[in-house]
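As the next step, I selected for study one protein, both as residues and as discrete backbone shape codes, as given directly below:
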Amino acid sequence: MEINLNETQREIDSSVRKVCAAFDDGYWTDCDQNGRFPEEFHAAMAKAGWLGITMPEDLGGAGLGVTDASIMMHAVTSSGGGYAAGSALHINLFGPHAVVVHGTPEQKAEWLVPLVKGEQKACFGVTEPDAGLDTSSITTFATKAPGGYRVSGRKIWTSTAQVAHKILLLTRTMPRAECKRPTDGMSLFYTDLDRKKIEVRRIKKMGRNAVDSNAVFIDDLFIPESHRIGDEGKGFYYLLDSLNPERILVGIEAIGVGRDALQRAATYARERVVFGRPIGKNQGIQHPLAESWTALESAYWMCLRAAWLYDNQLPCGAEANAAKLLGARAAFEACTRAVLTHGGMGYAREFQVERLFRESILPRIAPVTEQLILSFIAEKVLNLPKSY
């Protein structure tokens, strides 16, 4: 068995890195410090055709799979932009998947083509402050009205809502108490982010400041019935189509961040001379960095294994969750060690590792916690009783 990237995948990696090379550390520092969305980077990736890598070819996309998208996103996050670069593109890869699978031809043409061209941006309105990971407990409600629905409620941690034109929105259309199963009675919409009816409040946060996260308040928003994806009440199940790809992409994006930090640490260790010798000559520096290489390499291939299973329509829930868990932990450890290798200068913005360190905690928290991942694997793989 040969485990390697094929020619197309190597070309994806090379071509994406060429686009990323135009955006240096100064660019990403500016975006981070000023909380500015990387518009120029987003536009460059759109111009090169990368925003539609997983979109159908008849809509202007490349029609490629999650494996290819993973290779692309790893190249993006390992090229200096970190999660700021990755998150600027991430929603295009997994967020609209419900539209790809369950949307009508008219919906796909109207909604997906502008995303592929980079003419519009979308945000993802699912999580709520009082529900968290228990999606069945959301309370944002869409009430039937002539020609559509009227929606009120709250969402939180909605990324890119400051710059988005559209919102993919999960609401209840039937109270949970009246549903046969808690996951019934939710509907999925893709509609205009009407700022007259939707208030977007930016959340100040630790890292990834170039890509905004927000609390969203929806007050009597009218959504036309034509903006509903699929059948009423089936929205939660439509979202499931995108959960495994999301975990895989988050995992491999984290690995890219960790690999960038590791390379910066190794470069610094070769060049930094203390007591007449480069610090990289000391095993106390070498061994932690080498250990991080092994963890990142292992997590990388778990991500590609999970992506291959998904693309071949094989069960991949355990692998996708494991990929996210391993990738996030390996990246966090690599970024921590990169800061420590730099010593005092690791605390300075000049060497970038502090930015990568701040970003590396994110995939350990979102989009699903490590504890829920382990509970899932315990139940689904080890056949242990459900614990929650």
